[in-house]
Amino acid sequence: MAETKEDKQVKPRRRWPVFLTILIAGGLGYGGWRHFVVDAAPAPMPETKAAQAPAKVPVTYAEVKKADYPVHSYGLGTVVPFKTVTVRSRVDGEITKIFFKQGQMVKQGDPLVEIDKRPYQAALDQATAKKAQDEANLRNDELNLQRFQNLAEKSFESKQDVDTQQALVDQVKAQIQGDEAAIDNAQTNLGYTTIAAPITGRTGFRLIDPGNIVHATDQTGIVTIAQLQPIAVQFTEPEDQLPAISKAYDGGTVPVDALSSDGQTTLSHGRLAVIDNSVNQATGTISLKARFDNQDNALWPGLSVTTRMLVNTQRQVLVVPQDAVQHGPAGLFAYVIGDDDKVTAKPIKVSLDSQDGAVIADGLASGQKVVVAGQSRLQNGALVDAQPMASTGEKVASRSAPPADGATEKKAD
Predict the structure, then answer these.
(1) Which residues share a beta bridge with 111?
(2) Hey, what CATH class is 91-116+194-226 in?
(3) Distance CA 355, CA 410 (A)
(4) Which is nearest to 114 in space by CA: 212, 220, 201?
(5) Overall fold of domain 60-81+229-388
(6) What is the distance, to the nearest Å, from the Cα of residue 337 to the centroid of all Cα atoms in its chain?
(7) pTM of the predicted model, to two decimals?
(8) What is the pLDDT along the chain (413 residues), one digit of tens a residue?
(9) Which part of the chain has CATH 1.10.287?
């Protein structure tokens, strides 16, 4: 069949949708390839930078030094007065005056209380009058004796009368001696009506007010006076420390410091005064007493304190602050800072350890730098930024308080 002219015009029109469909499919395929293949591919890594230097760990260090190391023994004590006096009356009577204030410091001899003097003054006057009477009788009897002796020389008086008169004179003399004793007794009782301070110290609460009647037999006193200067601290130490304490005591003055109950503040400086003559078998301790001048009244009777007694001094030993000593699985060690600012954990041996520092028996040398703060972030070979302690002799601030159970410096294993 022959192809007409209209058929030739229709065929090109039918090919156009096919080409359009192919073009759209190609565009969609290219877009998918860009999205899922090209764009999803990881970006090329930038050029690797040089590894950064590790950060330095900030620490505080101290130098190992040779020094004299004081060996202290710590204990618990109580402040007690050297003397405590309860003032009582030695005569009976009414209190008419009180010269002191409660809590006042008084000196020995200062008047405290006055008791009604009138009965005792009357007794003194009576004794004085009796003595004057007897002295008058004595003068008369002595004159009679003289007359009897003169008459006896002329045989006008018998020897018996002379002897009788002599006995009368001696009797009156004895009465006068008794009168003098009565006067002394009356004067003493009159003196007791003014009660003076028997010691220098501080008064407590007044127990009797003016107007009260006091008696020599009263058990309740008028006031209590406690001596504060000097004052004592009574404390205990373990019995195994007795040989060292006795040796130090025999060698001279043994310094004793009184610290606050938490052991952080020094209240006063004194010296060992007395060692008890027996050990308490129930507690295994020995009692001691130290004397303190207490010029500033820092110590008060009844105050609980921690005592620090110097029993020995080790000369020129290696000493580091207490916080330089670390505890590890293998024992004690310390971080030593090298010249390259890197730390090395050095095993050490400690012979004595207290708040005054640690004595190094082995493992360190004089002049080495040991870390005393910041060890928690360290490991062997770590690089550090080291700063010295504030001062050479300064003790580590975080030092633990001295033992409160009377134990001395502990020896490390």
Answers:
(1) 196
(2) mainly beta
(3) 11
(4) 212
(5) Elongation Factor Tu (Ef-tu); domain 3 (2.40.30)
(6) 37
(7) 0.64
(8) 445 544 555 455 555 565 666 666 666 666 655 655 445 445 555 544 445 667 889 999 999 999 999 998 999 999 999 899 999 999 999 999 999 999 999 999 999 999 999 999 999 999 999 999 999 999 998 898 888 788 878 887 788 888 888 899 999 999 999 999 999 999 999 999 999 999 999 999 999 999 999 999 998 899 999 999 999 999 999 999 999 999 999 989 999 999 998 888 999 999 999 999 999 999 999 999 999 999 999 999 999 999 999 999 889 999 999 899 999 888 999 999 998 989 999 999 998 888 778 999 999 999 999 999 988 888 888 999 989 987 644 443 333 334 434 344 433 33
(9) 117-192
* Euclidean distance between CA atoms 73 and 238, whole angstroms: 9
In angstroms, the CA 88 to CA 224 distance is 9
- Give the chain's length: 413
Structure tokens, 8? 């030739």
Q: What kind of fold does domain 117-192 have according to CATH?
A: Helix Hairpins (1.10.287)
Q: Residue 34 is encoded by which pair of tokens?
A: 């860009």
Provide the token pair at 279.
């050990």
